[in-house]
Amino acid sequence: MTGTIKKIVEGKPFGFIAVEGREKDLFFHESSTGGAFAQLKEGDTVTFDEDLSGPKGPAAVNVQKAS
Questions:
Q1: I need a labelling partner for 51 at 20 to 30 A (CA). Which of 1, 27, 31, 39 fits?
Q2: Contact at 8 Å (CB) between 26 and 14?
Q3: What is the pLDDT of residues 18-49, one digit of tens each?
Q4: What is the biggest distance separating any 2 CA atoms in the chain, rounded to whole angstroms?
Q5: pTM score > 0.85 for this model?
Q6: Are the C-beta atoms of residues 29 and 15 closer than 8 Å to each other?
Q7: What is the mean pLDDT of the chain?
Q8: CB-based contact 27:56 (threshold 8 Å)
Q9: Euclidean distance between CA atoms 12 and 1, whole angstroms
Q10: DSSP labels for 9-54?
Q11: Do residues 47 and 2 make contact, with C-beta atoms less than 8 angstroms apart?
Q12: Which of these CATH numbers, 3.40.50.720, 3.80.10.10, 3.20.20.70, 2.40.50.140, describes 2-65?
């Protein structure tokens, strides 16, 4: 899937991805970025997989900056 980094919570290891056509943003944790969390910025386009079994609902995993 493809989306846009909507928010990276300052001082915290997580953020949210906006996906076109979805009302609710997807949560992602720095552990789902393969060590690239520090390089991600709000507004970046990313690719990811969706994990439907997250403890608080769907979450993005395997998050990578789109080329």
A1: 39
A2: no
A3: 999 999 999 999 999 999 999 999 999 999 99
A4: 30
A5: yes
A6: no
A7: 95
A8: yes
A9: 24
A10: -TTSSEEEEE-TT-SSPEEEEGGGTTT-GGG--TT-EEEEEEETT-
A11: yes
A12: 2.40.50.140
